[in-house]
Predict the 3D structure of the following.
Amino acid sequence: MPFESLAIPAERSSPLDICQEDVMRTKYGDNEAFRRLLDAYNPMISVLVSEFARSYPAAEVSEDDLRQEAAIALYFSALSYKPEKNVSFGLYAKICTKNRLTSYVRNCVARSLSRSISDYIDDCFEDEPAASDAEQPLNLLISQESCDALKKSIRSALTDYEYEVFMLYADGESPSSVAKRLGKDRKSVYNCIQRVRQKIKSLI
């Protein structure tokens, strides 16, 4: 057989090479390349999304929201990836995705907690608090979230009179009862409660 007739197989690109090429194409705005990247890393994204959804139920986020955040993280991973750093894109993308999901979940938890605190404060300042001492919003808030820092902030934001009114009212006493206990006019106590409410809500 003549030497010239020997066919040398063309070198095939490995999946890793193809992935690296799509990373570079994504950098230059190739949407199709990013779609291929998204398909290639879908298993990783699915695992992370399930992990975060299961581990952070208090965040109140859907898997669809987490998946969207993961896709955004993958896109920015491609844009910022530097091969010369000698880190594989897969590892880099995973780290970036986990970091973005962690930040996203923490922000969701913070917003949820802020709403919860606001709701507790609203409950606490109802005209006729009806809960028992053990069920008072303030007590629930402190025991549930260990809000020592919040209590200190509240104390420093209020005058002595406002703090005294606040503590009595938060413990379930009505404005009339607070006024009688402190020897104050009921209107004075009511106005004080409104000031306290606004001051506390400005802290969260």
Observations:
- The domain at 13-111 is CATH 1.10.1740.10 (Rna Polymerase Sigma Factor; Chain: A).
